[in-house]
Amino acid sequence: MSIDLHSLAADGEPESPDGPLTKISLGQEYATIAACRISIMNSQLLDSVLLQTDFPELKLHASGKVRDVYLLDQERLLFVATDRISAFDYVLATGIPHKGRVLTQISLFWFEFLRDLVPNHLIAADVRQYPAALQKYADQLQGRSMIVARAEMFPVECVVRGYISGSAWKEYKATGHVCGIELPKGLRESDRLPEPIFTPSTKATTGHDENIPFTEMAGLVGPELSRQLREISLAVYSKAAEFARQKGIIIADTKFEFGRTAQGITLADEVLTPDSSRFWPADKYEPGRAQDSFDKQYVRDYLEAIRWNKQPPAPGLPAEVASQTSQKYVEAYHLLTGRDLDV
Ligand code: Q0Z
């Protein structure tokens, strides 16, 4: 059935000068509207924005800008990704709907994709397999959490770069090398490197990670382990970046963390997410300038527009900016995995 909206106009209302209004066919449209309502209700019910976690019976093991880690027992940790977002080094006052689930699901996807290349710390991500004591938090945890094997973490960040950006671009411009690696002359900002490079860093006690030469890493954790971590990191990056590139996402660089478990050298923490990596939309890639961020560009543009001085307290985001950003995370998940996140 289809109805002409003119016939619904109240008596005496002026008619559109542009001719007949759009016709809508009631059956189909009504179904769509109903589905949208259900979907909006679902996304509110299933995934309200989580900014803080609180599990009173668990001991907090570590807390980052975005994720909280709890100690379950001597062997296992519970990772929970909140919907917090950071920009210009600060956590903003507004959360991003679905972000914690997207980041968790992206890490899970890569753990599976990379499982033949390197063991990882994942034990479980389905809340039904979690300890009984956590079942009462199922709604908070499902989709955004993982139980992982506690590892003896190596005190280095294993960074791989396929493109030159950020701190590496600054160092290259000033010196011609990055972390002791001589690079070709004449590179432009964001250029693809002839081959991916391993540029380790240390967790600085204050502020930013500090890039270190491979020799310095060897001094910290030993030369043999350093060579193994470099080889694994480069292999993992290359396999994942090639895959992502085919899906329209450039993974310009990424940071891995490894530790030792019963399985040997184990890929830990989050893996190849937009929070641990630079994701660039491939269709907008243009070397010679800084690239737009796949996920955070709306946030950065907004914060620049309001001329936030980048000092605390960090501002919140308008609903529109939070919503557009949420859609970018969901899109990244969809592009990489080919799956729909239920939203
Ligand atoms: C990683 C971190 C985060 C803050 C601890 N498998 C593991 N075993 C032992 N420790 C860790 C892991 Cl992944 C571990 N971090 C980094 C993560 C918030 C700090 F979500 N801290």
**Low-pLDDT segments:** 1-45
Distance linking N and C termini: 31 Å
Number of helices, where a helix is a run of at least 4 consecutive DSSP H or I residues: 8
Q: What Rg, in angstroms, do the CA atoms define?
A: 24 Å
Total strands:
19
Order of helices and strands: EEHEEEEEHEHEEEHEEEEEHHEEEHH
Give the structural class.
Answer: alpha+beta
Tell me, what's the shape?
Answer: globular
The largest sheet, given as strand count, sense and whether it forms a barrel, is: 6 strands, antiparallel
Summed over residues and divided by their number, the pLDDT gives a mean of 89
Strand content: 15-25%
Provide the helix percentage. 25-40%
Q: Could you tell me which ligands this complex binds, including any ions or cofactors?
A: ligand Q0Z
